[in-house]
């Protein structure tokens, strides 16, 4: 069963008490249901959103802690100061390889909103690198909305959460 609790809502209609998560990625926003991996498209880990990257930087979406970097720097588990945990996942077709990667932070590092977590060289890729933000413990934060079809890392809001 697909997880469908994330929907589009124009910014002017968002509740005043909502929590905004700044985009860690730049690119075109798409529902997680369009992810090529069923594990993500079915929302197995939780609700989330996907971005086809147009920029090489991954930035911290909030102040908190970088809990873990996994899978050769393609997965980041972050915890916000308010307790929210998110997974940032990068997906690339298996026939392609990223030639240069720079991970800017280590496990257990304190992070601040907009701080660079990683850099990826996207120049030689034939298809876009897909990035996902998954809410690992956001089950009590509903409804969840996205308001933009194109986002800029560190500038735009990717998701808006509302406390129950």
UniProtKB/TrEMBL annotation:
Q: Does the keyword Transferase feature in the UniProt annotation?
A: yes
List the residue ranges forming a coiled coil, or say none: none
Cited Gene3D superfamilies: Glucose Permease (Domain IIA)
Q: Which SUPFAM superfamilies match?
A: Duplicated hybrid motif
Domain (PTS EIIA type-1) ranges: 37-140
Location in or out of the cell: Cytoplasm
Question: What is the protein name for this chain?
Answer: PTS system glucose-specific EIIA component
Q: Which UniProt keywords apply?
A: Kinase, Phosphotransferase system, Sugar transport, Transferase, Transport
What is the predominant subcellular site recorded for this chain? Answer: cytoplasm
Q: Which organism is it from?
A: Pseudoalteromonas rhizosphaerae
- What highest taxon heads this organism's lineage? Bacteria
């Amino acid at each position: 069963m697909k997880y469908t609790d994330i929907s589009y809502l124009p910014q002017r209609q968002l509740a005043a008490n909502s929590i905004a998560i700044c985009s860690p990625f730049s690119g075109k926003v798409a529902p997680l249901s369009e992810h090529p991996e069923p594990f993500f498209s079915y929302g197995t880990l939780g609700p989330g959103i996907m971005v086809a990257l147009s920029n090489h930087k991954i930035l911290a979406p909030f102040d908190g802690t970088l809990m873990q970097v996994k899978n050769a720097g393609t997965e980041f588990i972050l915890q916000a100061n308010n307790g929210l945990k998110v997974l940032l996942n990068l997906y690339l077709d298996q026939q392609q390889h990223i030639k240069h990667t720079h991970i800017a932070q280590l496990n257990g590092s304190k992070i601040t909103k907009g701080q660079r977590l990683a850099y990826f060289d996207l120049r030689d890729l034939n298809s876009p690198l897909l990035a996902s933000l998954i809410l690992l413990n956001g089950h009590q934060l509903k409804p969840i909305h996205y308001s933009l079809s194109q986002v800029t890392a560190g500038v735009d809001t990717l998701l808006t959460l509302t406390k129950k």
